[in-house]
Amino acid sequence: MYRNILPGLLWVLQPLKIFGQTVIPLDGTSWTLENASKNISIPGRVPGSVHLDLLAAKVIGDPYYGLNEVNLRWVIGDVWKYSRPISIDLSPNMSTYLEFDGLDTFASIKLCGTTIGITNNQFRQYTFEVSSSVQRCSDSSNIEIEFAPATSAANNAAQNASCPLCFGINYEFDNMQFIRKQQCDFGWDWGPAFSPTGIWKSIRIVQVPTGFVQIQNSMVDIYRQGQVNNLPPDQAKPWVMNVSVDFLGHISGNPSMIVKLSNRNNETVLEKIVRNIMRIDNGFSSRTTADFLTTEDVELWWPVGYGNQTLYNLSVQIQDERNHTLATVERRVGFRTVVLDQREIPNDEISKGVAPGNKWSFQINGLDIYCKGSNFIPPDSFWTRVMEDRVKDMLDSVIDSNQNMIRVWGGGSYLPDFIYDMADEMGLIIWTDFQFSDALSPIDPAFLENVRAEADYQVRRVNHHPSMAAWVGNNEVELGLQLAEQVVPAEAVPLVIKQYETLFVDILLRAVFDNTRSLSYSPSSITNGYLSFNFSSPTPIIERYFNVTPGTISGNTDYYNYDTAKAFNNSAYPLGRFATEFGFHSMPSLQTWRQVTPEPDLHFNSSVILTHNHHYATSLLTADYSNQTAAALGGMGQMTIAAEQYYPIPPNDPHSIANFSSWIYTTQVFQADFMRNQISFYRIGSGRLERNLGALYWQLNDIWQAPTWAGLEYDGRWKMLHYIVKNVFKPVIMAPSFNYTTGALEVYAVSDLWSTASGTAKVTWYDWSGNVLNTSSRSVEIGAINTTITFQMNTQNLRFNVSNAVAKFEIEAQSTPPHLTGPATYTQESWFHAVPLKDQAMVDPILKMTYDDSKDKFIVSAENGVAAWVWLDHPSGVVGNFEDNGFWLVPGEVKEVGFKVKRDDTAGEWAKSVTVRSLWDNKL
């Protein structure tokens, strides 16, 4: 135990002894944060950030509150220094290292007054050999880490870069593509620009005696014999397990590995001594690799809804030639194959009506799945306050809404391991972007080497997780090439392509292919795929770019259209094999706004609301808020116009908080309605010529309290969108497809199950008083991951007035899912109206709601008419979600709605404050 005394503070460093080496954690509160220009000296925390330490010391208020994004700009542009005392064993025959899991971003590190290293990449693990430096340390030894402003570093990098074609999107701060830092730290259209800085991950001192090692990183790769990236393997082949360990220190002689695999009952499934080990030295670190076949009977890992999430515990002991254990690595693994399949559409599928071209879909264990999911952004501007329980709540919400995939968007950060751990257990598959978004970066040797080290570390770190689905090189940069092709001279286009491929094909592809056989790689998130793939070629992928043959379909799509007059025009939606991004923004709840907004600002276009709205790009570099009003009003206007075009709207009363709440509700109704229609369209596509096998809406979650595309608000509260996603992502659904011009209505039954679903589909037309105008039912059979038309009609030929009519489509079907031995029953309902609700002859439904203590349910009914978009709203103080929400009711129908409580600070009192409303209330 090492002790030292600071004025007024006793601090203790407790070294951890592991197989001879000593690890001294430097996390905690024994740090000091200083800023010379503002004469600030306060306690610091590691992991942490400057903003959060200033907040804890009450130097600043909550960065999210009010107008603080602007008021706190001074924090971003200054130099900050963290320091703390240390005590180090100076024994001979001991190599000493400083190991940093994450520094954000431009840091200069001093040990005992000597500069021992600098950093320039938020996403890398840095290790510095300091054995000679510590010999010069005295009893008053200390470590100092000084951070320069990332915004200044980005501007300097841009000025010094020989990169005339480094185009990109800029938000509050420019030149994000020239540095390796979370890009949305400089602002995005859904998030603030705080440009955080600090020690955002753990630090440790590592001391390794001669003959011992310290593990830095490890990788486990499990794949079928003969498997190569991007191509489906032979599922009959045995498994190959490749174990690779990065370590500090040196192993002499001929080391070996003892590999032990056990199940959750701690029963040994496999135990093997591996002696044929390859070693690679890289400076003062080394890599040891061993691979072997296993024919043991293991259970497969499946995504949620397709089977069990079977996990195994893997223990790897590294031994020297005398069989002494030097280090142990433990990982939890699963046996599965996952492939992003972009092969050519085979002739047998073309003969069944699938358009020629190439696939763009995911296979798990040799079988296609329909990916239902969303896009994940950083859940906070300050990662160190992202707690595991909050993420667990979020992923629970993903599973509860019938999603099986999330995509880690490429302008944020690589996820911590605990999120992959949760996904492994839940059966959630994760598509992960490398962190590049909407810009071309430089390709000078230093930048490329920096990226190569980053990618190598990240690929190896997460590869053992069975939830990992694919690596993708960037977010939307291939779309940027299309724009560049339109604006740069023709002779410069090959240079743009070369710049793109150097980073996203040469560097990042190799980082994946050189480390793992089990995962696929695509250079861009939105892409037309590749013309050819040859794993053995130095350049395995030949990109298609815009060489698309007419009549063929290749690649995936995104779609954003803020001309809301076209929102429900299905012919405007893109045809693709996979819908990766599509969305529309809405306001968060009144409860969420109250977290960051003074009461006088709780109206639609207040200064706080506008400052939190970053759609469109604003200029928030000064405290002059008028300079961003016009831009912010553009996005606010889109939400307003959408509400006015389709729904009865509340009167405009900026002094009424109840009126503000009604506008919030209406923007959420449009967002949910629009996304319901699009998701239905893409799911119908599983049985049409495009053979669409995925829909990931934009976006899952919020980074702060603001008008955004999210379905989950900052604290996890479900918007209307998330409830509608739960309904439309059910395994079997009814999906209407309507042509507003001709009146043609086709209603599809859609299934993403692997076996045929058989049952009954029903349509009932009601007037707004709840009288039945017409009803019909028929038997239906839906093939595996397919669609079938159940009803066809023209609303212009109906015998009743469609301005006073709504239709309810219902299905009940049976099928045997893969994880059950017997059939399961699937039900779903959806509603349709041929005329916008603002033009419908709506009546007051007279909603009633009570709470039944014995059932722990809310009992909701409509006494007088059809109730559209019924909304149960829970107060602050409780985190959770209703079993259903945003639903419709007809007179005589009584709906029981439960509530899943995740956290409750009200001792159950929240249930007394739940309110209910419907779209009719906008007329009051």
Write the layout of secondary structure elements.
Elements: E1 2-6, E2 9-13, E3 16-18, E4 21-25, E5 28-35, E6 40-46, H1 50-56, H2 68-71, H3 73-76, E7 80-85, E8 94-100, E9 107-111, E10 114-119, E11 126-129, H4 131-134, E12 142-147, H5 150-160, E13 203-209, E14 213-224, E15 239-249, E16 256-262, E17 268-274, E18 278-282, E19 285-294, E20 312-319, E21 325-333, E22 338-341, H6 347-350, E23 361-364, E24 367-368, E25 371-376, H7 388-400, E26 405-408, H8 417-426, E27 429-433, H9 445-462, E28 468-472, H10 477-487, H11 493-513, E29 520-522, E30 530-533, E31 541-543, E32 557-559, E33 579-582, H12 590-594, H13 607-612, H14 629-646, H15 657-684, E34 694-697, H16 720-728, E35 732-738, E36 744-751, E37 757-766, E38 772-782, E39 786-794, E40 806-815, E41 824-832, E42 847-852, E43 857-862, E44 867-873, E45 878-882, E46 887-889, E47 894-897, E48 899-904, E49 915-917
Parallel strand pairs: 25-26, 25-34, 26-27, 27-28, 28-29, 32-33
Antiparallel strand pairs: 1-2, 3-4, 4-13, 5-6, 5-7, 7-12, 8-11, 8-13, 9-10, 9-12, 14-15, 15-19, 16-17, 16-20, 18-19, 20-21, 22-23, 23-24, 30-31, 35-36, 36-39, 37-38, 37-40, 40-41, 42-43, 43-47, 44-46, 44-49, 45-48
Helix pairs in contact: 7-8, 9-11, 10-11, 14-15, 15-16
